Amino acid sequence: MTAWGTMDRVPAELFDTWTAAVEREGERFGVVAQELDAGRTPAAGGLQAAVPWLTDWTARDLVSHLGVVHRWVVGILRAGTTQRPRSPRDLAPPDEDLHGWYAQGLIELVATLRTTDPDAPAWHMSPAAAQTAGSWARRQAHEHTVHRHDLEAAASLAHAPVDPVLAGDGVDELLAVVLPRWQHTAPLATGRARVGVVATDLARSWTVEVADGAVRCTDGPAADPDAEVAGTATQLLLHLWGRPGEVAVHGDRSAEALLRGR
Predict the structure, then answer these.
(1) What order of strands is seen across the sheet that includes strand 227-231?
(2) Considering the chain, what is the average pLDDT of its residues?
(3) Which residues, 6 or more positions from 97, have their beta carbon under 8 angstroms from its beta carbon?
(4) Domain 164-258 belongs to what architecture?
(5) What pTM value is reported for the model?
(6) Cβ neighbours of residue 120 under 8 Å, at least 6 residues apart?
(7) Portion of the chain with pLDDT greater than 70, in percent
(8) How does pLDDT run across 228-239, given as a tens digit for each residue?
(9) Spatial separation of the C-alpha atoms in residues 45 and 59, rounded to whole Å
(10) Does the pLDDT value for residue 39 go beyond 50?
(11) Which residues form the MDMPI C-terminal domain (predicted)?
(12) How many whole angstroms separate alpha carbon 69 and alpha carbon 126?
């Protein structure tokens, strides 16, 4: 997978890769949710099972969250404008047939992505993102991947593997697109650090600089970093999104912690 950040337009092949990941990860999520609800997983409690690392979140909350996101993103894509959309809080899951509602939302999201030009205008919450449909295919590919991992943990199931190249793209998106969304908030607004990130299985690295309320990410190894975090792309993706990940952190841990997603 080629890094998108060096291109003016999203290649159709890359957009298709992201869309396929949305479908694959979303369907896996839906199957796990139904199995958990039916008592066919090691975890007890059905959809009331807790998500280990998301405080106060249950499996039902995860299903509801993604189902709302499906409809919110479809609305953004169909609007074809960079104007801010209505809040997703205006959307709500049904009291009954949660699984059918989730499945319908996923179908509509995938179908909308497949029939939308990657370069069509679309609002995005990050100032570092291209305001195009391509940004949403990318965001949803990684959102579904991470939340699928969350749901498997709630169900006490083994985690299905993540394609390393896709995981590396998820790390790139988090560092270069997601973090700048929060650069005006604590602790990024007052933090000052240079952090290196190394994906050991991809021979890929990034340098993230936080200074003066701004986040800047560039490809390549960091010179004289305050901290460095290294691991496989999948483990980095999980760690940087605040999930348990087998990574090695060297240097100032408080500097490395600035990179964590929310």
Answers:
(1) 214-219, 204-211, 193-199, 227-231, 248-251
(2) 94
(3) none
(4) 2-Layer Sandwich (3.30)
(5) 0.95
(6) 77, 80, 132, 133
(7) 97
(8) 999 999 999 999
(9) 10
(10) yes
(11) 167-253
(12) 16
**What pLDDT was estimated at residue 3?**
53
User: Token pair for residue 20?
Assistant: 């396929």
| Contact call for residues 181 and 59 (beta carbons, < 8 A) | no
* Mean pLDDT on 83-108: 93
pLDDT at 37 over 70: yes
pLDDT given for residue 6 in this prediction: 41
The string of pLDDT tens digits covering residues 196-220 is: 999 999 999 999 999 989 999 999 9
pLDDT of residue 208: 98
Fold of the 12-155 domain: Four Helix Bundle (Hemerythrin (Met), subunit A) (1.20.120)
User: Per-residue DSSP letters for the chain?
Assistant: ---GGG-SS--HHHHHHHHHHHHHHHHHHHHHHHHHHTT-SSSSSGGGPBPTTSTT-BHHHHHHHHHHHHHHHHHHHHHTS-S----GGG----SS-HHHHHHHHHHHHHHHHHTS-TTSB---S-TTS-SBHHHHHHHHHHHHHHHHHHHHHHTT-PPPP--HHHHHHHHHHIIIIIHHHTTTSTTTTT--EEEEEEETTTTEEEEEEEETTEEEEEESPPSS-SEEEEE-HHHHHHHHTTS----EEEE-HHHHHTT---
Predicted local distance difference test score (pLDDT) of residue 164: 97
Q: Delimit the domains of the chain by residue range.
A: 12-155, 164-258
